[in-house]
Amino acid sequence: MKPDAGLPTLRQLELLVSLPGSSSISAAGARIGMSASATSHALRALETGLGCEMVDRMAAGVVMTHAGELALVHARDVFASLQQLKGASAASAGLRTGALRIGSIGPSTSLRLLPPLLEAFRRRYPGVQVHVTERADADIEQDLVERKVEIGVVRLPQPTLDTLALATDELMAILPEGHPLARSETVPVRSLAEYPLILTQAGSQDMVMRMFERAGVRPKVAHELFQVISILEFVAHGNGVSVLASLTVPEPRPGLAFRPITPRVARRVALACLDATRLSPAGRAFWELARQQAPEGRTGQRR
């Protein structure tokens, strides 16, 4: 049977999926390795084949039309089906081959939670390629929706996702050794607000700011840093105090003191996916391994 010339190509659908969140149409194409001219041609060809515009050319930035939004849902399903197709092939090979994409929300999971799971998974399924991407919390959730990752580490609650609880994390005060606040076993939030704060720009930033808001105080933000190692060095050299999630805090190190904060601020961290019943064979194997090994190991199904 002769192929339908009006059907979109996979390359065109890949461009469609990359459009949301891009600063421009050409930037969306660049994300998937297309030149500006190839991007323009592919989008026009897609719109001609479907008979409607995917992007509102009169809007600032990239704004999908109603037809574009509808097409986007099906395009994402196409790539989800392709992953299942690859997974089925891997299953027939007894998981001797395959691929799994995982999203991590930052040091709290990349340093402590994922490494032992990945090590155990690699021992069981050495032929499966695992690719981990470290992104901000909201980006991981979006990557799950867009099928860029199959499994992601997220903070609970996540009512629209299937989840598997991994651990409970809490915020800790990071202080220079010998700091007045280090003399106590715990540090009140209000006391932290009296000193220059080195604010993390990683995943727990919003938690830290809400903690101060609930206490009715405004922190004196002196520096904003993304890397945990940079924050620890700044604190150790007396440039201020900081607050980090306990899972990101390394083993005791010279020049630093770690203290619990009162009142306690905790978060629950979990693996998440769109639908646990439709994971690829590699995804199902990783999910089951996490269920067996995670300290909390509780599953949440969407209502």
Task: Describe what this molecule looks like in 3D.
The chain has 303 residues and is an alpha/beta fold. The chain has three domains: 10-78, Winged helix-like DNA-binding domain superfamily/Winged helix DNA-binding domain (Arc Repressor Mutant, subunit A); 95-165 and 269-300, Periplasmic binding protein-like II (D-Maltodextrin-Binding Protein, domain 2, 3-Layer(aba) Sandwich); 167-267, 3-Layer(aba) Sandwich (D-Maltodextrin-Binding Protein, domain 2). It contains ten helices and eleven strands. The protein has helices at residues 10-18, 25-31, 36-50, 66-92, 107-124, 137-145, 189-192, 205-215, 228-236, 281-293, and strands at residues 98-104, 128-134, 151-155, 162-176, 187-188, 196-200, 220-225, 241-245, 256-262, 266-273, 299-300. Strands 1, 2, 3, 4, 5, 6, 7, 8, 9, 10 and 11 form an eleven-stranded mixed beta sheet that branches. Strand 1 (98-104), helix 5 (107-124) and strand 2 (128-134) form a beta-alpha-beta unit. Helix 1 packs across helix 4, helix 2 (25-31) packs across helix 3 and helix 5 (107-124) packs across helix 10 (281-293). The longest helix has 27 residues, at 66-92. The protein starts with 9 loop residues before the first helix and ends with a strand. The model has no long low-confidence stretch (mean pLDDT 87).
